[in-house]
Amino acid sequence: MGVRLMVVDDHRLLAEALASALKLRGHRVLAAAAPAAGAAELVITRAPEVCLLGTAAPAEPGIFDPVIRIKRERPQVAVLVLGPVPSPRGIAAAFAAGASGYVRHDERIEGVERAIMKARAGEAAVAPQLLQGAFSELLNPAAQPDDEGQRLLQMLTPREIEVLVRVADGEDTRLIAAGMGIAPSTARTHVQRVLMKLGVGSRLEAAALAARTGLLDRAGPLPPQSTGAEP
Fold this sequence. Notes:
single chain, alpha/beta, Rossmann fold, DNA-binding, Response regulator transcription factor
């Protein structure tokens, strides 16, 4: 017996292609929609048995907010996330939001269908190898190449990191210079180098990027205030 489905993805072409493939396999697709940001309203209105929710960034903060709302207002709907190879944080975030499973974008249609049936039956639908990989990363927490905060931190010198922390604390050029014991012109140069390395156009953007990526948490406390001034 077919499953009543909805397919939601920011890429309409992918959503429609998957919907067509599932229709050919006997499932009733209520809608194939984009963008994913409007998923919650659509699912709450249509009330499918399973919603396939595509995402390109499973670890992005707030990406699974639609899942939280769907499970709050339509707890009987099973949400199956479709995404890239996830980080442990991505898998954890999906299940914490209430998702019933996680399927990679490159999975064959047979694998997607098996996950759909499991999700409808109330079972967790996630490939064992994905869980294995997640547990392996959690048990061996080396710095990951997709860790943006770590990558940005490695681009900055210790002095530039201190400048960024002071910028994030709201210090202007005069305060940065006084706190670091350097001339205001030198402080201004450091700030400009930090902005250039981070690829942002303002101090506000730099502070927001540092906070979002966790860079500030990694930077540690500021050193004691310097007493002399560099030229």
